[in-house]
Structure formats: C-alpha cells, structure tokens
Design goal:
4 copies of one chain form a homotetramer.
Chain A: E1 2-5, H1 11-22, E2 27-31, E3 38-42, H2 50-56, E4 60-64, E5 84-86, E6 89-91, E7 97-101, H3 108-121, E8 125-127, H4 145-158, E9 162-166, E10 180-183, H5 191-198, E11 204-207, H6 214-226, E12 232-236, H7 254-261, E13 266-268, H8 270-274, H9 280-290, E14 294-298, H10 316-332
Parallel strand pairs in A: 7-8, 7-14, 8-9, 9-10, 10-11, 11-12, 12-13, 13-14
Antiparallel strand pairs in A: 1-3, 1-4, 2-3, 5-6
Helix pairs in contact in A: 3-4, 3-10, 5-6, 9-10
Chain lengths: 337, 337, 337, 337
C-alpha cells in the first residue's frame, strides 16, 4: 500500500500517522520526495482499508493498494488449479463440466425428461430452480421444497448431481441432499448467506453480480473460503451495461483474467447473459475457446410453455447440437468432459 | 401490452396464442396490419412476463409493455403522497426529514455525542450501522446486537427514533425496538428479506441497488407493500457507472421521476453516493432543490478515527453548517422540517 | 508517479529502467521494500504515460499516477475562477449565465420569437443548432449556413450573443460571427477539432462526452488551452448508464468535483440530460444549488412542431417559470444573473 | 411504429394527429382498446423519430419502434454476406481476415520488420497509426503524413494492403494510397466524417464507440452506405463499463447478434478491448469461435520501446503463436484464411 502525503506535511501529524500504521503489523518505508513524501506499507495489508487511512489524517493525499486484498482465493498462494469433484462429476483443472436444466423446476415429468436428455448429450450436472428470484412479486416464485424433491427424483433416475439456488439461510435445511448450492447474482454480496455457506461442506456455485467487479467476486468467494469451505465455483453470467440488445453483456475477458488471479474454477452461463436462445451456441463455443472450466445452460423440454425465461432456453435437441461443438472444442483445448 | 407478430403468421398458431392469452384475464385487440399483425392486451397485465410471451410462440416478433408492472406503489392508483410518521418524526408529503449518524456504531460515547449533536442541528432520526456489509471478510463487520443496544441508549438519551440496517432475516428479533429498518443497496433484490419485511409493521428504508433501475426499485418496494406493509421510504444513494472520480454517480433525476411514478417518499444519501465529505453539502442542497423528501447523512464525532467510511463523514460542526443551508432551502420549497 | 517493481528484479533491468526514466526530466526516488521495491517519480509527469512505462520493462508490476495529467486547466496552478465575458454576458466566477433557445434553428420567425422571449425571461445567450448530429442519416440535419444566418438575425434583433455547435473544421468559416462555439458530446474527443479551436479566440462551450470521465473532459479542455485559447466553458449534460428511464443520467456531483479541480466555469444542460421537459425545472434548481455557473435550456415557441427533441423543450411560458425559481436560488447562492 | 394514446383522448386532437401522420407515407391502423387506444404505423418508418412524435401531441402516451431504423445495412433486405476484397485480401462471408501491426507507426525499420513478420504468420492486412487520438495533448500524436509514407513503404516491400486511421476530413488527401480507412471509436459518431467517407470508394473499417449501442453502430454504418459506399467492415473493440480490471469490456455477444441484423462483416480487436497482451490469445480464439469475420491485433517488433500501448502489443513471435491457434479454429469454422 502506498500513501502519498500532501506537500509540506506537519511533522507531528506525520509522527501520529506512522505510529498509527506501525500498530498494523506492516513494515513502513518513508520516502522524502522533492515535492511529496510517500509512505510505503509492506506486508499483509488485506485487513487495511484505503478509505479509512485516507480519512485518518489531514496530511494524506492518496492511498493506493498494490497487492490484492484477497488471500485464500489468490493464485499467488495456491498456484494449482482447484478441481471440484462431486461423485466423479468434475469442474476445474483439466475437467470441463456442463451443468444443464430448466430455469425453474415445474413438474416431475419435465425434470425427468430434461435430466435424461441432458445426460445423454453429455451434461454432468442437472440444474433447476426451486427458489426463483423474480423482479416482480406477482411472478412465479418457484416450487420451493417440492421443487427440490423433484430435482432429487430426477437425480435418482439419472445419477446426475443437482445444482439449485438458495435465496435465504432460512431454507438451508431443505438443501441437505442438494449437491451444489448456487448463490445467484443478486445475492453475491449477501454476506450473511456467504458466511453461512462458508461453514457448509458442499460446493458453492457463486455467480457474479450484475454490477460486481471481478475483485468483488473474488472477495465474495473469499468470504466462503475464510469460513472453511474451499469448494467454490465462480460463474460469469453477464454484467449490466448501457447495451440493451442483449439482456446483459457477457464479460468473457473475465475468464482468462480471473484464472490468472485465482485457482478456483470458472464457468460461463450464456443463457442468462444473453437472454436469447440463438446466442447460446456461439457464446458457449467462445467460452470454451477463452478458457472456461464449464458451462451452465438452460434446457427445457418445451421452452414455449416454460414458466420463466423460455426465450433463452434450448430444446434438448438444440442442446445436443451445442454439446457436439462444445465437446470438439474442449478436446482441442485438452479438456476432459 | 402490445404483441407484434411476425409476417404472415400461421393461422393455427395465431389461434393457439390468442386462446392462451384469453385465459390471462385480459381483453384482446387483434389488428390486421399491412405488413405485421398486432395483438393489444388491455387490462391488468402485471402478472404477465414479456419474455415468457415472446418465448411462447414462434409467431411473436416483439412484446412491449405499455403499463407499469407495479400497482401498490403506483401513484396512478394512490395519487396522494405517503408520509411516514414515527412518533412525530415525519418523512414525505410536506415533511422533509433528515436522518444522521455514523456509518457504524462504535461505542456508547460516540453514539450519544453524535445523537445529541445531530438532534441539536435538526436531524429527526438517528442512524448507525450495527450490521455492516463489507466487501472484505477481513474488514470490521459491526457490533451486531451490542450495536443495536447502543443505538437504543442514544435514543433513550435524545428521543430520536433510530434507523439501522438489517442484513439477514435471522437477525429480525434483534430489531424489535428499532424504529426504521434499513435494507441496504446490496440487498435491494434479496426478495426473501423483502417478503419478510412485508409482514412487519415497521417503516422500511429501501436503498436503491448499485445497478438497479428505478423500475426495479419500485418492484422491490412492491414486494414489501404486497405483503401488507405500506410504510416504505425509498432512498437514492448513487448508481455504479464508468466514472470513478466519485464512489458512485448520484442520480438526482431519479427523485422527480420517481415522485411522478409513486406516492412513496424518497430521500437522498449524499454521503455514500459521492464517498467524499466535501461533496455532501452541495449534493444535500441539490437534493432539496430537486424535490427530495429527506436526507441521510453520515456524521461522526471523530471522522479520522472512524472504523469505516471516515472519508465521507462530516463532523458535527460541518453537519450543522449543512443543516443551516438545508433548512433554508427546504423552507423555500415549502417543506416542514 | 509511483512504479512498483516485481519481486527480486534483475539488477541490470533496474539500471536500464532508471536510466531510461532519468531522461524524462523527473527526479527519481528508489525505495527498497521488504517485498517489493518502488520507484517514485517526482516533477512534471504530464508527458508520461502509465501504460507505456508498464510495457517498457518486464520488472514493472504496477504504475500509479498521483498527480493530475492536466496543467493549464488545473486549479492548483490557477486558483482564481475563470469568467467568460461576451460583450457583458458573463459565465463563471460570481456570474451565473443562462443559455436558451431551440434544439435546432428552423425559421426566422421561430428564432426571433424565441430569442425575444428568453431574453425577457433573463437568458443572457441564445442557442440554436444549425448543424445537428443525428444518429440517423435520414433525420433532419439542420439548416447549416442558413441556420447561422437566422441566429445572427435574432442576435441583431435582441442583442443576445449566440451559441451554436460546430461539427467539422470544414465549416469553421461559417462561424466567424458566432459568439460562442459549442463542441457537442459526440465530438468531445475529436482532437483535431479541439486543436483547431485552440487557435481560435472565441469562447468554446465543451460538452462532456456520453461516456467520458471528468478527467477526460479536463484533458479535452487542456487541448484547447494548450493551443492558446483560454476561454472554455465546460458543460455537464448527462452520461450514459444502464438506467433508461431518463435519456442520460445527469451527473450533478461532477459540478462541485470539477470546480475543485479546475478554474474553468461549468454549466449544466438539464434538457439533453433527462430528455423530459418535466424534469427541466427540478434539475435546473438542483444545478444552481450544487454550484453550477450556468444553465443551457431548450426552449421552443411550439415544442409540438419541433423538428427534433420536442419532448424535452420548454415553451417560453414554462421557461419563464423556471427562470423565476433559478433567479431566486442564484441570489441565495450570491450569484449575479 | 406503435403509438399508444392516453386515456380518453380528445377527438379533435386524435384527428390532428392522424392527419399529421397520414402525410408521412405510412399506413395507419387505429385500434380502440378498452382503456387505451393505439395507432399502428405500417410501412417505412425509418425517417420518423419516436421523440418527435411523442412531443407532437398531448394525447400520446408512448411511441414504440418495432422495425429497425436502418435499411442499407439491414440483412432483411440484403440476406447475403458482404465480403470486402482488397486485391485478394478478403474479410467477410467465408473469409476470415487478420489485420496486424503496431499501434503507431514509428520508423521504417519498425514497419518493415513488423510487416514481414505478420505476413509470414498469415496476416492479410498491415495496420499502423499515423494519426493517433490521444487523451492528452502532451502525448505522442503520430507521424502523420510521414507515417503514411512509411506504411506505403512496408506495403511495397510485402504487398500487404494497409489500414490506417483518419481523424479529420482535412487529411483525406493523404489517404489516397491507403487501402482501408479506419474510423476510430471516438469518431464513430463524427457524422461529417462518415458522410464524406460515404463518397469514397475505399473500404471503411468502422470501430464501435466506447459507449455506443449496436444499433448506433449500424446507424453510423448506414451513414456511409447511404452516401454510396457499400464497403464497410464493423469492428467490436470493447465498451466502457464499471469494470476496470480490463481497459474495456469486450462485447463478444455483439458478433452473432450483429451478424443476424446486418450483412456487413464484423471483426474483433482484442488488443484495445483488454489492454493486456496476455488476454489477446484467449480473446482471439473466442472471437473465431463466436463467429467473427476477422481480427485486428497489435504487433510491435519491440513492445517495450513502443511509443503507445506497448502493454497490449504482442511480439512477432507471440503473434505467430496466436495465429497458429486462430488458423486451426478458423478451419474448424469452415473459414478461409
């Protein structure tokens, strides 16, 4: 951390500031410049806040962080890729994993049809929403406990591990048999939920918030790892920008950049990002090419009757066609599917 | 809602679509155009989703909503301003109310000093964070229950009703004696929390999310009102944009626009919006001039020692100076403080 | 400028880097840190580029600019406010100036009617577009030279100095009798145009680009001042964000922030920012309260027949009503109108 | 275009509005709804402006465009892909073309070295900036005419057609021997420049503006085609968002979406988008996979000594490695390189 002082700082104030900083368990370098003096802090500064230091003294002009504020998720300290393994279904490292299923769980027939179809096409995980975060209180909110029961039926039938979203700590008991717990974009900074999931032993699929920076995504993952749960899968699903031709703007640059910063696996959700079924194939292919560790794709046995997000869902047939291309490109990238 | 069909739609598909729509309790106008046919839906369409209709048939080209998807918060159906009254401290209608206090509750001495000072300057509510949403798990997270106890001490001393943020339903019991419950920007779409607060009888201060549209803010308020709780105060606190010179971009246009759409009161938080103490005065004045119903301002007895956000906090003296100007401008606007 | 080196940098590379930097006319402070070494550059670094330095050596980890890259517009070196005076019509310092008129010049009758009306209400400058930047090539593009002739007729009639937009250096000759040349948001980084206007002796009204940072706005102004023309008025007119309820998001925080950084006057254009006539009054009042030096407001004698932007134009009567409130608030701010 | 009227509109006002619309050469459908009446306009509405209609009458509630405002670039009217052919170097249709070279032309030695290298690796066009749009007036602005001369030397040596950016109509004469004229992101809405290039017979490489929507990009291309020049290549180069970890956010979803809307070829510039050399390879691969028609990549013989953007430039060796992967993926996509 680099603290630039204002010109001609009061000596007493400088002493106050440095003695305050000395208590923070960091090494202090004081540099006399021609115009401005600079204090360099060396060591672990992840517990320090730039704004708090800026506010702490009148003689501080700017505070600049030069090392990352995250530790457990930082690749610097854990150079090897983390691979999440759920009964042999793997995401991360050399393993490219595809999660597929409907936006929301609607019926047993639907879930079993979709589960069988996506398994046949090569998906390794089944997704389906039992708790649905909807902008409108009047929109379909999901089948809740019954939805999880139907997911488990489909798991029993196909053996696919299931991924479903949690919206509140209060429902945690219902997730006992869920294989991967998803934290949705709107809850990426629901810190109490993250803390609680830090004490879980289940893999967590953490989606990037609509307006969250990559660093904030890593800090939210850090909340989970700091609690003891090392099994986090990150998911890029589009950010909110001025462009309205797609629902969100899929930030594929985030994949290689995040992979350089963290050892955690990163997957891409092209369905929610674009909100347009026709874009799922090109974006899925791009996700493989850019280095993602997996995909999360919406598949519905009858998109026209879907109770939400039908316009972005693929039919099982369309999904199978996407998977042919994904498998080929993944093999080009030396990924195991 | 207006549904434009693709050119030369299949007649059977048209029939399927219209018979499906007829079940939705709306009146259907079918218009034969020279190139495209159009179906107009008239009536309450708040339960319908544009994307679901778009996906429901191959013959649909576009779906456009022309009426607002919110009802309980809509000024059309409730033309009179809502005024929130907490033991005589009022926000909304003719009443301009100021909420002030530190970012986080730190000690009894701090809270009582600040509470007395802001009351003397004209604040009607005391704020202070007991649960703090922090990007980093290593940053100070607040005093939790003890923080609420200290707020109540300060209330006992000054009579000021207290406003504090809830981060999880699990803590709801701790808020029994809190006067106004704040939902922070990061939880604006924590729908389970909103539903729960819809069953509360306490006023809710709902902050706009960092990347939430005005319509989404109204829909989140609708969640609370739909649950039965009519006492919601909206709060504009800056949105996330490409501009980094201020922490967020305060969207003051939202004030008059929201006031034309809803009867709920709307206040402005210039402290979090800008993240710069020197901007609090000009932005507070602008907020009054643009028609806000109140302000929420951070005040700390010793900003240099604040455990968070010290760089945006005012001293009691600075706050008093801001309040002189705010009071004058509020009187110009015929507002009662 | 602060250059942090990677850990254990190669000594020869360090020498290469420092000897390269020594040629740049800055003083170099080399600091040995516990983990990373840091090089501080002191002096005028406005000619240096962070990215170029970052790229220049493998041993550089980060480069951080700590002083502003602009000089001529910087308040540090010119503490007194600049006031633009056009034959007694003033903007800046203690003077609050209002520019009003139609979006586009349409006819002599229109211009003279509007000019008389806005003068009566207290406007000090007349605006009107002769060259119109339109997204569509099929939309009305303005009357060009004839438009400027009509503006000059209105000036002859009323004495109001005229403000009109230039879109290309090729038209510069047509602007000989124009009083203030406007550079539109889309041309804020048309650097060749800025350079040419730097050699003009006319005041330049420089509008902030739709996605330009405050620093970029100042750098564009710096282009003009660097050419010798010191007469620049900045204009905030809304930035592009995810929010679509208003055409753009008016960034009123930019006013006090820019005023702390530069001595140039700053005005606000509420008409283009919101794109909604009903928001012009509250935003104009907020602009005065936040510290702006003036306003630019669209007024049309018959908004319903306007050839562009009629939905954001005020009638002369509405404008007069806004001006009553603006004058009062300006007097509260000790501004002369 | 769909015009929804306010409730209970005045009959005279309705007649006024419809008679005004009848003059616009469109067919009018008037629909009586239960609550609101709706007017549908059928035919070519590209000359009509939503806001102008909205403003034209007090009885209009909303105006919604349902057909695209662009014609010449619209795939609906020109279903076949456009392929740009410069002496056999092709971009578009089945042809995947790579443009490579340094950010700015610096010396003859540099240009010839780079030109030979990129040709050997498979690039079909040589790029290099002679006129550089720089945020700071104090930064290197390019070699101008001398820069173009050096590009032509490199062309003579290698036969590669050259691509270079124009910043002002005033320099047009210098571009007589340039093969492809680039319009940079900052000039995407410099409409006078676009109009002038509409009269040229040279291919135009049109880069998307930092905050321009896809529709605005197409409208800017429409300016060029409307002038008679059909040879336009679109280029996605990243948009400005809140995320600062990359210079811009590369919007790869724009590629398949734009290809569905227009017949013009679309290439991707991963160098400017990310601003980070290490991201060029993954983003180039993703661009091929997502369906782009080409790439524009910065290559410098000595990035460490580059006068601008060295941090995003590849060495010829790195470029060759990227090209191996791009060629393979392009062949997978059945593209000819």
């Amino acid at each position: 951390m680099i603290i630039m002082l204002k010109q001609n700082p009061d000596k007493q104030e400088v002493e106050k500031l440095t003695s305050m900083l000395e208590k923070e368990n960091v090494t202090i370098n004081y540099v006399h410049g021609k115009f401005n003096d600079v204090i360099g802090l060396v060591g672990d500064t992840s517990h320090l806040d730039e704004n708090t230091i800026l506010a702490s003294s009148d003689i501080v002009e700017t505070v600049t962080r030069v090392s990352e504020p995250y530790k457990a998720v930082n690749r610097k300290f854990h150079p090897d890729d983390t691979c999440i393994d759920v009964n042999g279904a793997k995401i991360g490292g050399q393993h490219f994993g595809v999660i597929a299923g409907p936006c929301s769980v609607e019926s047993e027939e639907q879930m079993i049809q979709v589960a069988k179809a996506v398994k046949d096409s090569g998906a390794k995980f089944l997704r389906g929403g039992a708790f649905k975060p909807r902008t409108s209180p009047y929109a379909f909110q999901g089948l809740h406990g019954e939805g999880i029961r139907l997911l488990l039926e489909a798991k029993k039938e196909t053996g696919l591990p299931i991924v479903t979203e949690i919206m509140s700590i209060a429902h945690l008991d219902l997730f006992n048999d869920v294989d991967v717990i998803q934290v949705g974009a709107r809850n990426m900074q629901n810190f109490d939920l993250l803390k609680e999931l830090g004490h879980s032993n289940k893999p967590i699929l953490l989606k990037r918030g609509l307006s969250s920076t990559m660093e904030e995504l890593l800090m939210s993952a850090e909340y989970i790892l700091a609690g003891g749960n090392k099994k986090v899968i990150l998911c890029e699903r589009g950010i909110r920008t001025f462009e309205k031709a797609t629902r969100n703007t899929l930030d594929l640059s985030a994949i290689p950049l995040l992979k350089s910063k963290t050892h955690l696996p990163i997957i891409v959700d092209p369905s929610h990002a674009a909100g347009i079924a026709a874009l799922v194939e090109p974006l899925s292919k791009a996700a493989v090419a850019v280095g993602a560790d997996g995909l999360m794709i919406e598949v519905h046995n009858n998109p026209k009757m879907a109770r939400c997000d039908g316009d972005q869902s693929l039919t099982p047939l369309q999904f199978d066609s996407v998977m042919q291309k994904v498998k080929f490109l993944a093999s080009v990238e030396n990924k195991i599917m």
